Amino acid sequence: MMTDFPSLAEAEARDAADPLRGWRERFALPEGVIYLDGNSLGALPVATRGLMHDAVDRQWGEGLIRSWNDADWIGAPRRIGDKIARLIGAAPGEVIACDSVTVNLYKLMGAILAARPGQGRTILTESGNFPTDLHVAAGIAAQHGLVLDAAARDSIVEQIGPDVALIVLTHVHYKTGDRFDMAAIQALADAHGVPLIWDLSHSTGAVPLNMAADAARFAVGCGYKYLNGGPGAPAFLYVAAEALEFLGSPIQGWMGHAAPFAMTDGYEPAPGIERFLAGTPPMLSLLALEAGVDLMLEADCHALWGKSQALFDFLSQLMAARCPELVPITPARGDLRGSHASFVHPNAWPINRALIDAGVIGDFRAPDVLRLGLTPLYLGFADIWHAVDRLATIMGEGRWQRDEYKVATRVT
Ligand SMILES: *Cc1c(COP(=O)(O)O)cnc(C)c1O
């Protein structure tokens, strides 16, 4: 027997009453597509188009090399970093926009370990963490003669002790959506004197963050997910002001030099967070990221998170009633998760392919997870309703069993 579930009329009524509804117009989303993958690649803000035209035609085309000064290209990593700082509860001068999450993890881990030689034997992280976090940690551990301890999620707290040289945790898990209690784990790490790096890739722009209030001193995060910075957008790196002077980037590049254009032989790190820059910043990508960050700064992150939770509850209710064969694995409680909802099914891959064909873009994470991202800036309750309705049809008809949906793609 089918359980009761909310009607489309109910969804439309909730959209009509939603004070955040107008934000959708700020995104250039294709007609007829319900986009549930903003947690993997954010949507295109309308403003980004114009800014990109200006960046290419005026700043680059006409300004040429003069734009490094005239358009303040040289100041972009720090300027955008200061804006991201406002999103994560950090101070100006504590965040720099640069490189990828991977490279920033490498720089920050290397910097912290070099500043505390001989302290601890292991790098502690979570087994099943995002692959790049594990790979970088394994590489750095080998370089520094340390052991990588990838512990089960529920045993991490017990592992924190004097043996640990460095902890690297992803705040919101990319697959399950599980969220760590940042303040509590940070306090525990601090009690043992162990530095802790937070990966905020699935948190920034999704859940309210406050580095200062949670006493978090080190973090990295992603620009192309909830910040809508564009494909391969630069990432960011955060170091609390009090810790900065003790750290030097293991990639000593000229852009991290105190005076890059003094063109000196010797390396002297920039006094500020710029010391974590390496090479010449990718200006077009940075300017696209800035447009996404500006848009996010206009929104009220607490209102966004409130709507994200309402969308999550709505989705959960519909899924339980209409697609019970997909098993939810994301915690129901808001304070225990991020802004996506994941479901397990042995045929999650072809189901996701069939869903995309039906105009609903979610994604698949190996081996069996269907992941649906909830981005309150441009999704409404009717979108969620239609998405589940189409998924229920696909499941009911067994449409996912078609051969065409079994074909693998390079990116999932
Ligand atoms: C998306 C994501 C990354 C991405 O790393 P890149 O170097 O930017 O490709 C890293 N870590 C986590 C936890 C992520 O979710």
UniProtKB/TrEMBL annotation:
Its cofactor is pyridoxal 5'-phosphate. It comes from the Bacteria. It is an enzyme of class 3 (hydrolase). The modification N6-(pyridoxal phosphate)lysine is found at residue 225. Catalyzes the cleavage of L-kynurenine (L-Kyn) and L-3-hydroxykynurenine (L-3OHKyn) into anthranilic acid (AA) and 3-hydroxyanthranilic acid (3-OHAA), respectively. One of its GO terms (molecular function) is pyridoxal phosphate binding. Pyridoxal 5'-phosphate binds at residues 102, 130-133, 170, 199, 202, 224, 254, 280. GO terms for biological process: anthranilate metabolic process; L-kynurenine catabolic process; L-tryptophan catabolic process to kynurenine; NAD+ biosynthetic process; quinolinate biosynthetic process. One of its GO terms (cellular component) is cytoplasm. It catalyses: 3-hydroxy-L-kynurenine + H2O = 3-hydroxyanthranilate + L-alanine + H(+); L-kynurenine + H2O = anthranilate + L-alanine + H(+). It comes from Blastomonas natatoria. Its EC number is 3.7.1.3. The keyword Hydrolase applies. Pathway: Amino-acid degradation; L-kynurenine degradation; L-alanine and anthranilate from L-kynurenine: step 1/1; Cofactor biosynthesis; NAD(+) biosynthesis; quinolinate from L-kynurenine: step 2/3. This is Kynureninase. Homodimer. Keywords: Hydrolase, Pyridine nucleotide biosynthesis, Pyridoxal phosphate. Belongs to the kynureninase family. The gene is kynU.
